[in-house]
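re: ur question from yesterday

yeah so i grabbed the chain u mentioned. its 176 aa long if i counted rite. heres the sequnce exactly as i have it in my notes:
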Amino acid sequence: MYVAGVFLTYLGLGLGLLGVASALGQTHWVSRVAALGAVGLGVLALQEALVPEWGVRLSVPDGMHNWLHRLTGKATLPAVFTAGVLVDLCTVPCSGAIYLGVLGLLATRTTYMEGIAHLVLYNAIFVLPLLAMLALASSRLVFNRLGRWQLHHRSALKLGLGLGAIALGLLLLLTV
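ran it thru and got these structure tokens back, copy pasting raw so excuse formatting
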């Protein structure tokens, strides 16, 4: 249910932004804004990876941590689904840079219906690692190892995300 919440939230955001681009009919303008957003979020991710003690940190707001733990602790299907939606909304600034770049490409390179099909495919691929982690997390030993690995490689992950977002944004700016 958590993964379904993540999938549907990102899909809804993507469909909304793609719909705005189509309604405006000025996909080049929307694509440029998306590209600049991707570059900006990529720069924030780079800053956090290279100079974490300076500037803005992209994370779930402090006040939501305890509330999300209580929500997921209930382990009811609606609570876990809601947690997936809320966590996803809070992490859009972290992972949204690549998504903005992809949406910009879809807005300029596809029809609206093709864009929807690509968006569904993109979001399905986006949640595949979550499903894999869910399967792996069923083993406490593997879960603990994954947690330690993520803690020790957080900067490298943010660096890769930042560089990828900046590259995608600049590529989009050059081609629009």
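noticed a couple things. The radius of gyration is 17 Å. also The chain has a mean pLDDT of 81.
anyway ttyl
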